[in-house]
Design goal:
The chain is of the alpha/beta class and 269 residues long. It has three domains: 90 residues, Orthogonal Bundle (DNA polymerase, domain 1), CATH 1.10.150; 77 residues, Rossmann fold (3-Layer(aba) Sandwich); 83 residues, Roll (Ubiquitin-like (UB roll)). It contains twelve helices and eight strands. A three-stranded parallel sheet has the order 1-2-3, with helices on both faces. A three-stranded antiparallel sheet has the order 7-6-8. A two-stranded antiparallel sheet has the order 4-5.
Length: 269
């Protein structure tokens, strides 16, 4: 698990019952957070039990991990949360191996009725204010509306449908975009006569690392990457005009790939 997307009910409809009988997205948020925390406490207990024998035998690595687990449990006991738990650099590896849910980045999705898909409503305002105070991200999306959009196969009709509602894009696209931001991911493209493909990498990755996403041989034998930005590629209507206009750059292995770059790797193994 790299991140958690929490969908919150932010609409009132007497025909659709709620397990708590009334609508309160902040309460729902807290309930799920508590459940995740309890799951983490249980997981920490199991992991502690698993290394107990090694700790008794004096294993330094196991003792270090056991001490970290106790420190985390103590923090949860005092603060009821791990969101503000600071991990020292020397314990980062052990902490990641614990795979704790309440330390994962969270995106809160406010599921609203169709009429509130653009401006939100009183429920989304509460969620946005709450998330802002905690440094979390939240977005508005109407699942009902997304279902209607998904059943409109014609792209032109879909765009017109969105335009009539005052929307520039679907909620699903917004969710994907914000999910990428949450995980610090970007996309680069490769294109050729047979196919064009999108590749997902961490923001800040070098051209050599990005090449390895396609195949390890590309990374090992990396020579250079012919690169053009997405905007220049579209403006030039393709690779040929981009070359004529001098928009294609020759980038080395230390080049930091930018979101939307279109790349052609040269390599030799």
């Amino acid at each position: 698990v790299e991140a958690i997307i929490h969908i919150l009910r932010c609409f009132d409809n007497p025909k659709i019952t709620h397990v708590e009988e009334n609508i309160d997205p902040i309460r729902d948020m807290d309930i799920v957070e508590t459940e995740l925390m309890l799951a983490d406490i249980e997981s920490l207990g199991k992991q502690s039990e698993k290394i107990k024998t090694k700790v008794k035998a004096g294993d330094k690595s196991a003792t270090k991990k056991s001490d970290l687990i106790q420190k985390i449990l103590e923090h949860i006991k005092i603060n009821d949360s791990l969101r503000d738990f600071l991990v020292p650099d020397e314990e980062e590896s052990d902490f990641k191996s614990l795979n704790l849910l309440t330390k994962k980045p969270v995106l809160y999705v406010c599921n609203v009725e169709e009429k509130s898909a653009v401006t939100g409503n009183e429920f989304t305002k509460k969620v946005f204010d709450h998330c802002s105070s905690q440094g979390n991200k939240s977005i508005i999306l109407s699942c009902q509306l997304e279902n209607e959009i998904s059943q409109t196969p014609n792209l032109k009709e879909k765009k017109q449908f969105l335009s009539n509602l005052g929307l520039k894009d679907t909620g699903l696209s917004k969710l994907v975009t914000d999910g990428y931001l949450l995980l610090n991911l970007i996309t680069y493209f490769t294109t050729g006569p047979k196919e064009s493909r999108a590749w997902t990498i961490l923001k800040g990755s070098t051209a050599q690392t990005a090449a390895g996403k396609i195949h390890s041989d590309f990374e090992k034998g990396f020579i250079r990457a012919e690169t053009v930005s997405f905007e220049d590629f579209i403006d030039c209507r393709g690779e040929q005009q981009a070359k004529i206009k001098g928009k294609i750059r020759q980038e080395g292995k230390e080049y930091i790939v930018q979101d939307g770059d279109i790349m052609n790797f040269k390599f030799n193994v």
